[in-house]
Amino acid sequence: MAILMAFNSPELEIIGMTTIFGNVSTPLATTNALYLCELGGLHIPVAEGSSEPLKGGVPRIADFVHGADGFGNINVVSTVKKSSQKSEQAACDFLIQKVADNPGEITIVALGPLTNVALAIQKDPSFGSNIDELIVLGGAFFASGNVTPAAEANIFGDPEAADLVFTAGINTQVIGINLTTQVILNEEDLLEIKNSNSKHGDYLYDMTRFYRSWHLSSDGLDGIFLHDPTCMAAVLNSSLFTYRTGVVRVETQGLCTGLTVLDMGLKEWVGDNPWVRKPAIKVGWTVNTTEVKKLVKDLLMRP
Hints:
Helix content is about 40%, strand content about 15%. By secondary structure, the chain is an alpha/beta fold. The strands form three sheets. It has a six-stranded mixed β-sheet. A two-stranded parallel ribbon has the order 1-2. Helix 2 (about 25-40) links the parallel strand 1 and strand 2 (about 45). Helix 4 packs across helix 5 (about 115-125), helix 5 packs across helix 8 and helix 10 runs antiparallel to helix 11 (about 200-220). The longest helix is centred in the C-terminal third of the chain and has 19 residues, at about 200-220. The model has no long low-confidence stretch (mean pLDDT about 95).
């Protein structure tokens, strides 16, 4: 949904996509990204990212939320044309090159774990300073997580990468599930998209069946949370959000792995702690749910 929103937004110049594990494995995410490019009629590079977190190990895959194919088990990935090929560059190299070629002009929208961005920071010390803005879907600021009570899925997927990125001095704003769980499409909304003049209405409706069933069993919610679309709404119209600015650190081990902790600047600390003298970022604090939902639906229902 978020990617098709971007495709339907003429004010955005989309210069590429990178892929990462999370909803599915990284290779399958690449296939899915190529399919979405074909669906949206957009010919852009798709660069495959890391297949494992920064520290290595088996990545967490949420196929129980999104289906084995990442599209709610509607089995559309087999229709990707054989002419569609991923970029020869790895995702971190693709990011480094595009930012170097366009210093101060690139916005990166990170909808999954931050492994590729962290690898780019490690490989090129100038990378972070040349990004115009990094907009991240992740974290659960002063709210319950969706993987554990402490952690949100994208941050939990690679907490080391998230902590590195959040403290790298990049102009960053983070949209957490404390906001995205406030923006919900119910069955009436989904049927409105299905029955609209959009060429993707049927596809979007079918794709959400599995996701909606999971929300009902997991959260008791008769609808779906708009995590990624809400983050994309922040790219398109940041005035629909308010923000708090402060240092964010991520717990990387133990019971609260993936916990995002914002120092709101309410106290002058005595001595050192892991938040002292680290660069601040912007954290989404409130969201205009009515207007975000309207923006999402308007873009997804464009013919």
